[in-house]
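#lab-general

N.A. 3:47 PM
ok so I finally got the sequence cleaned up, no stray characters, all 285 residues accounted for. can someone with queue access submit it? mine expired

B.Y. 3:52 PM
send it over

N.A. 3:53 PM
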Amino acid sequence: MSVSSVVHSVIKHYPNVTLIDCGVGRESLLMTGQCIHSYDWTKPIENGRQLETAEMPWIVFIIVNRNGKDFSGSGVVLNNNWIITSGHLLLCRYNPCKVSNIRIYTGNQDINHLTDYHTIDDYFIPNEFRKGYQMSYDLALIRLSKPLNLMSNTEYKTINGICLPKEDIINTNDELALIAGYGAINDTTKLKGRPHMGWLKIMKPVFDSNDSNGTMITAERTPGGSMTCKGDSGGPLLQYINGRAVLIGVTKGGIMSNYCPKISFQTYYIRLSKHIEWIKQIVCQ
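B.Y. 4:20 PM
back already:
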């Protein structure tokens, strides 16, 4: 099946949730929904490349302690006060279990030279995932203890929020999208350095149990293509519209061999357009 050269995303502003200048990064003007800006796919996400400073200023690195052990993942800035990520990063399903010392690193920091981090005030996971473990609700919203400083002394913002899509919108064809995160860069190697990005193909929904009736976005790794790996959970699946990034999905993960999926294995992303109402309720409460 051919891949559509046009993206389905439509950006919508949600007061008190998204920023007026959301989705603008250093390379934004090179990215549009009609013309996919190509990169060398052979570079270390798997078969992706390292992000430039401020290229995707909404990506964050998250470290959380569960029962005395640190776990890490990726996340996305919505606005000055809120981060969105995957629910399983913050969920303890074993008793007794304690989640503590959650640290948020902004500004596309080098994972080997982490500096200042942000602490949190609270976090929220949908009841459908917290209690019922429904995979299509694998989301979490983190409220920071102090607002992020979105001002910049440089030409580009080093921290910015991403845009959100119009509620309930879905792709009706196979399309290209971007992934990014702090995960492994191949089947045996953890990330060293800044977060990586790459292109992949998202599949037309089939509306069955495979994609939770269209509430999850499915992507299949093909030879030469990029794919999210262990540690990318909570990171963005995005498309660009007129130079602005819109978050169409949050990385959930898939079947892994060591760090990354095998060829032809599928990975899954929580379709954000199906969770806009929940996001608004939590952020605006």
